[in-house]
Design goal:
With 448 residues, this protein is of the alpha+beta class. It folds into three domains: 89 residues, Immunoglobulins (Immunoglobulin-like), CATH 2.60.40.10; 150 residues, no CATH class; 143 residues, Roll (C8orf32 fold). Helix content is 30%, strand content 30%. The protein is built from ten helices and 26 strands. It has a five-stranded mixed β-sheet with strand order 2-9-8-4-6, with no helix packed on it. Strands 22, 23, 24, 25 and 26 form a five-stranded antiparallel β-sheet that branches. A four-stranded antiparallel β-sheet has the order 1-3-7-5, with no helix packed on it. The radius of gyration is 42 Å and the shape is elongated. It starts with a helix and ends in a 5-residue tail after the last strand.
């Protein structure tokens, strides 16, 4: 009995111990996973559109992870992005850049952002040209090119550029570009039909030379359109073989016909053609017509080398009044001014301009340059057109050759040589040989 009782008691104790054990601790719940994100704030529609011109656009975004940016497809060379990668943060930015679209094709690509294991895209597009750049019909070119001569007539300077509208796209033609257009257009106009009006001229954008006006030995006052076309062809051929740069001059009959002269003469021809509908047989060959740009009033100035002489200067006015007293016609006044200088002034031997008109008139002496300044100042003060002529190789009856400068006065449509440096000279007739003398330039204002 005793043994049984103890066994039962142990069983009871054992059962009691098991009931007092604590419950197992529950496992903690895992923290929620936060996914990486990239949010674009600009552009709001994830689309960038460019015109045909080069340009840039910023893409602004926030990203919770490191990111990269690239253009797809990889062969889309017309567009680029920078920077290409970055770290997480707000107000991040990349810049998309496109080049000028020189084609009529529209372009499309994607800016692809990669972050974590995700991607987001921005569409990038660029318009194509309605017509290729620097392509114009003859009807579009003629009024613009002819108008350059109107600008020239204001100050004897060709405009630096011409503004064109290429089907809504503004384009600037610098001098080389628009001389190329003149060459192409004149060649077709000379064929005698109207095909040039609708023909499209594709400019290769040739460049003007650096010193197009210093090479001048072509002496005739006029030149035929046929010869101008020949010069244009030579210039254009030269440019195509020399990195699209025109030559400083073209050799014509053993003389120099400068680029600047070609530019002016072509403008002169096109201007007359637009006005009359016909090409002239000949046109003035010099850069200036020497018949404008001088205002004959009390405030006018005649530029004479390094000096400026007012046409209203008392010394000039007094000499003018003395020289032309009693004369009424332009011819009478021009002759009187020439003989006034020839008979009263003494020639001195030195080079280039030193004195200017006023000093020559007061001192009654000077070299050929300064005597010419004096005559031109008096003539212009009297309302007579006048120009300078430079002959680097002036041939005299003795056979001697000298550099020389003389004035020419414009009377009744004719330019007359008025070389007062030799007392044997007559109005319109110098003592040197005109046929053998080389002409370097004719100027409104003497540059030396």
């Amino acid at each position: 009995m005793t043994v049984f009782a103890m066994t039962a008691l142990m069983a009871v104790v054992s059962c009691g111990k098991s009931a007092e054990e604590p419950a197992p601790t529950p496992e903690p719940e895992p923290e929620p996973v936060v996914e990486a994100s990239l949010v674009i704030s600009s552009p709001t529609n994830n689309t960038i559109s460019f015109s045909v011109n080069r340009g840039t656009a910023d893409v602004v975004f926030s990203c919770t992870d490191a990111w990269t940016a690239k253009i797809e497809p990889e062969d889309a060379k017309w567009v680029s992005v920078y920077p290409h990668s970055g770290v997480a943060g707000d107000d991040k930015k990349v810049t998309v850049t496109v080049r000028d679209n020189e084609t009529t094709d529209a372009y499309a690509a994607k800016l692809v952002f990669s972050y974590s294991d995700k991607k987001i895209e921005v569409s990038v597009a660029q318009e194509g040209l309605k017509r290729l750049r620097y392509n114009y019909t003859g009807a579009e070119l003629l009024p613009k090119l002819a108008a350059t001569y109107e600008e020239f007539l204001k100050d004897d300077l060709m405009p630096k550029s011409v503004e064109m509208d290429n089907m809504g796209l503004a384009e600037t033609l610098i001098q080389g570009y628009y001389y190329e257009a003149m060459c192409l257009l004149l060649e077709d106009i000379a064929k005698g039909d109207d095909a040039w009006k609708t023909k499209t001229y594709a400019l290769t954008r040739c460049i003007a030379p650096g010193s197009g006006s210093q090479y001048e030995t072509f002496a005739p006052d006029s030149v035929t359109v046929e010869r101008v076309l020949w010069v244009n062809d030579k210039q254009y051929t030269y440019a195509k073989g020399h990195s699209k740069v025109f030559a400083n001059y073209c050799t014509v009959d053993g003389t120099y016909f400068s680029f600047t002269r070609s530019l002016v003469v072509c403008a002169r021809i096109l201007h007359e053609f637009q006005q009359t509908g016909k090409l002239p047989e000949k046109v003035l060959s010099w850069q200036s017509d020497f018949l404008h740009g001088i205002t004959y009033d009390s405030g006018a100035s005649s530029y004479i080398g390094a000096s400026t002489c007012s046409l209203a200067d008392p010394v000039v006015v007094a000499a003018r009044d003395e020289a032309i007293k009693g004369k009424t016609t332009t011819r009478e006044k021009a002759e009187a001014i020439f003989y006034f200088a020839r008979d009263n002034w003494e020639w001195l031997n030195y080079e280039n301009s030193r004195k200017g008109a006023v000093t020559v008139i007061k001192g009654k002496d000077g070299n050929c340059c300064d005597m010419t300044h004096g005559i031109i100042a008096i003539a212009r003060s009297a309302g007579i057109h006048a120009r300078y002529v430079h002959g680097p190789k002036t041939v005299y009856p003795s056979g001697s050759i000298w550099g020389h400068v003389w004035p020419e006065l414009y009377v009744d449509g004719v330019w007359y040589i008025c070389d007062a440096s030799n007392n044997a000279s007559e109005f319109g007739t110098p003592t040197w040989n005109q046929e053998k003398t080389e002409i370097r330039g004719k100027y409104k204002d003497l540059p030396f």
